[in-house]
Specification:
single chain, mainly beta, four-stranded antiparallel beta sheet, 0% helix, binds calcium ion
Length: 124
């Protein structure tokens, strides 16, 4: 009987740059492989990055990225499904009171969000 495989025996894939929060697995670019999306925080900069899934596994380097115009300390990415029904999965970044929506496309992430959704409007 073979010895059980330990996690530390597996080759490691290190994401660069380091990510703070992440979400997987949907297909942002529509190539049939699920992708990883991650947010990194460096000083005042918040960046959303896509790490492409491939038949050989997850790429350790981002294939596309978008800056997040927010000062929230820990923006969190979330898959939204295909909100605009164009065949590409879409990504949201949750901030304190709003969600920024990035529509998927063959290039991966667009440079800027396509929509800003305020979670709570003014009281009636
Ligand atoms: Ca993909
Ligand atoms: Ca879509």
């Amino acid at each position: 009987m073979a010895a059980p495989l330990r996690v530390t025996d597996l080759p490691a894939t290190t994401l660069t740059p380091a990510a703070t929060t992440f979400a997987g697995a949907r297909d942002l670019d529509g190539d049939g492989c699920s992708d990883l999306i991650a947010v990194s925080v460096a000083g005042v900069a918040r960046t959303l990055r896509m790490y492409r899934g491939t038949p050989l596994g997850l790429s350790p380097s981002p294939s596309s990225e978008a800056s997040i115009d927010a000062t929230t300390s820990t923006p969190a990415p979330v898959w939204l499904g295909d909100v605009n029904r164009d065949g590409f999965d879409d990504v949201g970044v949750t901030l304190t009171t709003e969600i920024l929506v990035y529509h998927g496309r063959t290039d991966g992430l667009p440079d800027h969000p396509s929509q800003r959704v305020v979670l709570r409007g003014p009281d009636p």
